[in-house]
Amino acid sequence: MRVERGLGFEPVDREFERLGYDLESRDPGAMRGLRFIEVKGRTEGADTVTVTRTRSSTR
Question: What is the pTM of this model?
């Protein structure tokens, strides 16, 4: 959220709404529109990140 705001976007936390993404981030100037962001973490030392079908597509 802090990084998105620092870049000039207006992020909204959607994590608990089960939409398939965690953040909606809008460009207030509408030049770049609305972005849907999935926040991922991984275990230290992991070589891969698994993305499920739900996480790779939104409605």
Answer: 0.64
Q: How far is CA 52 from the centre of its chain?
A: 15
| Distances from the Cα of 39 to the Cα of 7, 31, 43, 45, angstroms | 17, 23, 14, 18
CB 34 within 8 A of CB 26: yes
pLDDT at residue 57, as a whole number: 64
How far is C-alpha 34 from the chain's CA centre? 11
Element (H, E) at 35: strand 34-37
Q: 59 pLDDT exceeds 60?
A: no
* Full domain range(s) for residue 21: 2-56
Residue 28 phi/psi, 5° resolution? Answer: -60, -20
- State how many domains the chain has: 1
